[in-house]
Request: fold
Amino acid sequence: MDTFSQIDCMVAAGVMTQATADKYKTLMAHLTGLQTNDLLMFIAASQVQHLAAGSFSPTYVTGPAILEDGQDIMADTSAGPYTITLPISPTIGTRIEVFDAQSTFATNNLTIARNGELIDGSATDLIANLDNAHMTLIFNGGAQGWSVYNL
Reply:
């Protein structure tokens, strides 16, 4: 199923309005005919939603960085692997999005340091090692810490 057909299905399922779908289609016109699956559509949906709202302005990073609440990161690891650090003392609901800017995470891994909190219940840092990865991290607190979506 192509991307536009999936958007139409999302409208039919009540996931989004027709007006939002029209914005998505305008923004994604260059993807006409792209074959995709539901996972790809939902991975892209967050980024496209920001674009449709005119509010997607990611921070482009090429080396170590300490993230802030709600930050969208385009991480370029083409020059080599490095570490970005999650915010200290996050509150429940804090959201961070990380995108592979140059499709190089498999070659040059991006480490996401947990900064003292758990990631999916684990006391280990997250290693992004899949090209074109897009991760949404949401802080849930407690035994879970940061939950990772869209990996």
In short: The mean pLDDT is 79. The two ends are 22 Å apart (CA to CA).
